[in-house]
């Protein structure tokens, strides 16, 4: 009688071959050594720091970590699904992050602290590349912090169930695939933002907007999606909301 080990050996071999083929099919410009090269990193940092973003006046501040990671041999971004226990934006996809605490030295500190509180990823494992400009979102300005967190296994992360329902990764290959990109239009304020459909959950709204920025800066040679926008809503000195013209807007959805 054929042993169990002998019977599953062909299956394991087939899985190994399929995994290797999948990695080999990745666009050459999305390979790990290319994206993480010193020259690409430097170019990405310069673009991310200078990317034009509309911000609001006289509002609170928050920060999110944009975690580039390695998962199953491919680079991608790590996302969280907000806990159903939360009172706002529960069940929505986001990056780890939150409001600035009075004890935070700066907004980079906010992003690192929130990532630890949500996912128990220590700051020693986070290679911060750069911070971006503040982005106006409803009644808060949010700073994206781009970082590389190395290899991760989402299912093994120690998530905080009070803040996070689930963690998942979407590969750069899928995020750059035009067949897996759509858009969402909002009326109040008037804004159109990209929507990424290649992962377990839809990445859209404010998180989709930051994903778009990160991809344009990180892999512009592959990521060709363009969207036109827009006008943002903010309060003027009299307290009334007014339209402010901008080439890019990310004022809707969630942190």
Using only C-alpha atoms, the radius of gyration works out to: 19 Å
Question: Looking at the structure, what is the overall shape?
Answer: globular
CATH class: Alpha Beta
User: How many beta-strand runs?
Assistant: 12
Please indicate the percent range of residues in DSSP E strands (runs of 2 or more). Answer: 25-35%
- Largest sheet: number of strands, sense, barrel closure: 8 strands, mixed
Q: Give the integer mean of the pLDDT values.
A: 83
Distance between the termini: 57 Å
CATH architecture: Alpha-Beta Complex
Structural class: alpha+beta
Please work out how many helical segments DSSP would assign: 6
Structure, explained:
This protein has about 260 residues and is α+β, with helices and mostly antiparallel strands. It has one domain (about 30-245): Alpha-Beta Complex (Nucleoside Triphosphate Pyrophosphohydrolase), CATH 3.90.79.10. Helix content is about 25%, strand content about 30%. It is built from six helices and twelve strands. The chain has helices at about 5-25, 30-35, 40-50, 105-120, 170-175, 205-220, and strands spanning about 60-70, 75-80, 95, 95-100, 125-130, 135, 140-150, 165-170, 180-185, 190-195, 230-235, 240-245. The strands form three sheets. Strands 1, 2, 3, 4, 5, 6, 7 and 8 form an eight-stranded mixed β-sheet that branches. A two-stranded antiparallel sheet has the order 9-10. Strand 1 (about 60-70) and strand 2 form a beta hairpin.
